[in-house]
Write a structure and sequence with these properties.
Helix content: 40-55%
Number of strands: 13
Strand content: 5-15%
Largest sheet: 7 strands, parallel
Shape: globular
Order of helices and strands: EHHEEHEEHHEHEHEHEHEHEHEHEHHH
Distance between the termini: 14 Å
Length: about 375
């Protein structure tokens, strides 16, 4: 097969959808080397995370011939390039398909990660909501199959955009293999020293924004019987000021250490040094940090209300996103009951095996083959 990917995010985004795009391209190219993978991107820029593309002989990078109107090329002009290249199937990796692809005979699928812009419209400007909604609806209508990143996202597509549930497949995302590689005690000690980490800590990873709901963890601190600091790793937004104001007003400032400059290379050792991972997000498309924690042998407490149970499995713990007392109770239980904690770690590792790259690549390839077979 000749498989085309909308690879803009893979080349231009360092996190989020960029990580997803690079993971998916690498996973399919690695496990199904008999195919040719063409990556279509409007431009290139230095990005060390995509350097591995060059090591695959079955991966080719396609950019527009000119330097101008590159956005228009991605949204429409690329269609003629796809026809010239003889693409069998085109995969829009993030909500979009190029205009006109439905009239070319080229089969297509599109990945939808979440509909947070509809579930929580207050987090988005009205123009962005209109654009995201229009692009998503058009791509889902055009595509031969829609790939949702979780069952929750599939339900949202049916409920909020009236997409036929029989047109939607669920394929989860894996996480980077670096998190499942056990770090030596010396390496973890070095990372602790580098970042001045406490000996024991609760970890939270993710952008510090309102939807991620770090305030719940802050509000749980006064109710804890176990005294253990929290380490928060993530980019900042204005929401951080709200959290810090609460901490200051309640004399809790020294209970949370904020780290905004942790590199990806250091992050696995930070995870593996933690006693517990807490992820109280109100809504996610999937919740990759939970999977990163599970494969790092760290027990997880997360919030109910979206898809986090799908990421964490039945042996992780869950609380309501507004119930700080319940969160405190669960934290105390996990940190003081070693048998329960070890069971969560063991079962978490077992559960995480369903997100192995080989399994997910096979699911994707089955979808591609079915779509082409029904051409």
């Amino acid at each position: 097969m000749k498989i085309g990917y909308d690879a803009k995010r893979a080349f231009l985004n360092n996190t989020g959808l960029g990580n997803f795009s690079r993971w998916l391209i690498k996973t399919t190219a690695e496990h199904y080397p008999e195919n040719t993978y063409l990556l279509y991107t409007p431009k290139l820029k230095p990005n060390k995370w995509r350097n591995f593309f060059e090591s695959f002989s079955n991966v080719k990078i396609i950019t527009p011939a000119g330097k101008y109107l590159t956005a228009l090329w991605r949204s429409k002009g690329v269609v003629s390039t796809l026809k010239k290249d003889g693409i069998d199937i085109y995969h829009g990796l993030s909500y979009e398909l190029p205009l006109g692809i439905g009239h070319t005979g080229i089969r297509s699928v599109v990945s939808i990660h979440d509909l947070i812009f509809l579930r929580f419209p207050q987090y988005y400007g009205w123009i962005n909501r209109l654009i995201y909604t229009a692009k998503t609806k058009r791509a889902c209508k055009t595509a031969d199959r829609v790939i949702a990143i979780s069952e929750r996202t599939k339900q949202d597509l049916v409920e909020l955009l009236n997409i036929d549930e029989h047109k939607i497949d669920v394929v989860y995302q894996g996480c980077a293999p670096e998190f499942s590689i056990e770090r030596s005690s010396e390496e973890k000690a070095a990372i602790k020293q580098k970042h001045n980490l406490p000996d024991r800590f609760i970890l939270n990873v993710g952008t510090i924004e309102e939807r991620k709901n770090l305030m719940l963890l802050a509000k749980a601190l006064p109710h804890l019987k176990t005294t253990i600091p929290v380490v928060v790793v993530g980019k900042t937004t204005a929401y951080l000021d709200e959290v810090k104001a609460f901490l200051s007003a309640n004399n809790l400032t020294d209970q949370i250490l904020f780290m905004h400059q942790v590199t990806f290379d250091d992050l696995p050792a930070v995870y593996q040094s933690a006693d517990l991972f807490v992820y109280p997000s109100r809504y996610e498309g999937f919740g990759i940090p939970i999977l990163e924690a599970l494969v790092s042998s760290v027990p997880v407490i997360a919030a109910t209300g979206s898809c986090l149970e799908e990421a964490g499995g039945e042996f992780s713990r869950y609380v309501g996103p507004d119930d700080e007392k319940a969160l405190a109770t669960q934290i105390d239980e996990v940190l003081t009951n070693d048998a329960a904690r070890q069971l969560m770690i063991k079962e978490g590792l077992i559960y995480a095996q369903r997100f192995q790259d080989r399994t997910l690549a096979a699911q994707l390839m089955d979808i591609y083959k079915q779509v082409i077979a029904h051409a």
